[in-house]
Amino acid sequence: MDAIKLMLARFQLSIYAMWLEAENPGIKVDKLYIIHICNKQKKDGGYDHTSKLIEVKRIPAIICQDLLDCDLRGEQFHNPYSIPESIARKEDMIRSLTTVKKQCEEKLNAIKSDILQVMLSAGVKTWETESMKLTRKESSVRQSFNLTAFRKDNPDFDTTPYMKESVVSESLLITL
Fold it and tell me: What is the per-residue pLDDT for 1?
């Protein structure tokens, strides 16, 4: 389901929930869901019938009421969930740079693979120039502790004293 349809559904269901609660003070709507039904035609001519239940996050009543009030007054509603125009204008550049980055990474990985094969054939672990050093890392086995499985097998064991916390910097994920 695309983002615009999802946003419209969020607003619609949030307004319905707001109205239901206003008319029935004892009722509280906890969750909102969309039933997404899709009947796509497959290459062989048949149909792929799929359906799924999608939980949507409720939009606060104050924003829903602002939307309705703007509509009644004939004013433009400013959706606080919309991407600002200054950022939306950067979408083409983001898409272009992401494509170039992917192409560069593919080329670099091919070059690294070629160099690794030559180093393996020559039995060399390191090559250096004045501005670059190539180091072949040999394959190894990495071990890690499966905390989820341990907790499942030992539900009474308190792992809290052994847990280590670290701060993860805030970041942005862009999905194209």
Answer: 59
- CB contact set of 81 (below 8 Å; sequence gap of 6+): 7, 59
Residue 99, token pair as written in the block: 């494509």
With contact defined as beta carbons under 8 Å apart, do 66 and 18 qualify? no
Judging by beta carbons within 10 Å of its beta carbon (0-12, 13-18, 19+), is residue 17 exposed, middle or buried?
buried
User: Within 13 A of 118's CA, how many CA atoms are on the CB side?
Assistant: 10
Where do we find the tokens 């019938």? 49
- Residue ranges in the chain assigned as alpha helix (H): 3-23, 61-73, 85-88, 91-122, 147-153
d(CA 2, CA 9): 11
Does residue 71 carry a pLDDT above 90? yes
Report which DSSP code applies to 160.
G
